Amino acid sequence: NKGKYEHYMQKEIHEQPESLTTTMRGRLIRGDSSKAKSVLLGGLKDHLKTIRRSRRIVFIGCGTSYNAALAARPILEELSGIPVSMEIASDLLDRQAPIYREDTAVFVSQSGETADTLLALQYALENGALCVGITNTVGSAIARHTHCGVHINAGCEIGVASTKAYTSQIAVMAMMALVIGDDTISSQARRNAIIDGLVDLPNKVREVLKLDQEMKNLAKLLIAEQSLLVFGRGYNYATALEGALKVKEVALMHSEGILAGEMKHGPLALVDENLPIVVIATRDGCFSKQQSVIQQLHARKGRLIVMCSKGDASSVCPSESCRVIEVPQVEDCLQPVINVIPLQAMLIDFNDPMPFDELVVVFLTYKSYVT
Ligand code: UD1
Ligand code: F6R
Question: Of the four listed, 54, 114, 147, 328, which is most buried by Cβ atoms within 10 Å?
Fold first, then answer.
């Protein structure tokens, strides 16, 4: 039931405060002053020793699920100290890339049925890796065939373009980083800040959803364009890829997510006064580097739309012509959950409601079985 919403994607975008709440329900333990805060993922607890001993963690997925894993990669590396590599399922299979018994392979899939991801799971099982699933669908093939895993519990996702599953996947993988990482004294403050950030995340999502109308207005300006570039780095490289994927899929417009650190090595040649460019420059360890990227894009007369933390508009905008999207600031590793939402909301009016009314069953089947 779509309730007051015109179509499922819109409903699911607005549902994210609630879907994130159910994702975290029963999993965050808030300690009192004498006790540290902690995280419990029932599906992983018997396998944590094996995961911590693994030589490498490999994230495997397709599309939006791959992007969610990419967003979580830095925090998993930071807290676990284990090398984390990324594989798009079809590419892993095309290369028949090495997977070892000492690897933990993490399969990320909303439906739990995506053919390429399932084939990659088969391949990793044959190669003896510990296989962990992160899926939204209880009883799905990936949930059944992995050794262990975590259900993201975001609720059924009907819209073809994945939205609430993406944010819940990131929340689960941040929690996974917390349970895998050592609970050392030196990491305590950081861990507590992330747990507090998770607890408060639904409120911050509610806040960023208020940009809905502003994003629709921006979309009206962009609709006639040929292309849109999205620059991100660090935690928000994934946001750039995911924003661009959504623009392609929903607005049927060319868009490219670009790693800002690669700007000088090719993409800068594209920049002129016509091409709109979104730059994600919220506060984190990469902020000053993003400021200098903005300066360089401005010097090339790029048409800039900058996403920044609340209150930062004047420190990121090189000129009056630059548009700003100000979002609430959260703990750096959770910022991708917030930053993707205006990009999702921008696309709401591009979505034709009719097919969703009539073809829900077809879409559900499509979403589950076609890659
Ligand atoms: C489980 C219950 C939940 C209950 C909670 C109370 C289920 C599905 N979940 O949640 O209803 O409220 O205990 O303690 O019954 N798994 C995989 N692969 C995957 C995903 C999950 O093997 O891709 C496995 C997990 O290792 C685990 C089981 O499925 O054995 C359930 O996972 P999950 O729902 O995440 O566990 P809990 O959060 O503990
Ligand atoms: C994009 C989208 C797809 C899926 C991809 C993987 O909005 O929905 O890119 O993310 O097909 O699907 P799952 O997560 O079900 O394995």
Answer: 114
Instruction: Specify the length of the chain in residues.
Output: 371
Q: Is the complex ipTM higher than 0.95?
A: yes
Output the CA angle 19-201-178, nearest 5 degrees.
95
Exposed, middle or buried: residue 109 (CB in 10 Å: 0-12, 13-18, 19+)? buried
CA dist 169 and 214 (Å) reads 26
What does the alpha-carbon distance between residue 316 and residue 322 come to, in Å, rounded to a whole number? 9
Q: How many helices (H) and strands (E) does the chain have?
A: 16, 12
Under DSSP, is residue 77 helix (H, G, I), strand (E, B) or coil? helix
Scan for tokens 């208020």, then name that residue: 210
Q: How do residues 153-210 score in pLDDT, each as one tens digit?
A: 999 999 999 999 999 999 999 999 999 997 788 899 999 999 999 999 999 999 999 9
Neighbours of 187 (CB within 10 A): 15
* Residue from 59, 66, 114, 248 whose mutation best tests the ligand 2 pocket (most atoms within 8 A of CB): 114
Would the pTM of this model clear 0.90, i.e. be above it?
Answer: yes
Pocket of ligand 2 (CB under 6 A): 62-65, 109-111, 114, 117, 161-162, 245, 249, 371
Ligand with an atom nearest the CA of residue 160: 2
3-class state of residue 224 by DSSP: coil
Cβ < 6 Å from ligand 1: which residues? 42-43, 133, 135, 138, 142-143, 146, 148-151
Is residue 295 a contact partner of residue 289, using CB atoms and an 8 Å limit?
Answer: no
Structure confidence at residue 31 (pLDDT): 74
**What value does the mean pLDDT take over residues 56-81?**
98
Query: Tens digit of pLDDT for each residue in 295-332?
Result: 999 999 999 999 999 999 999 998 888 999 999 999 99
Which of 41, 151, 153 is the pocket-test mutation for ligand 1 (most atoms within 8 Å of CB)? 151
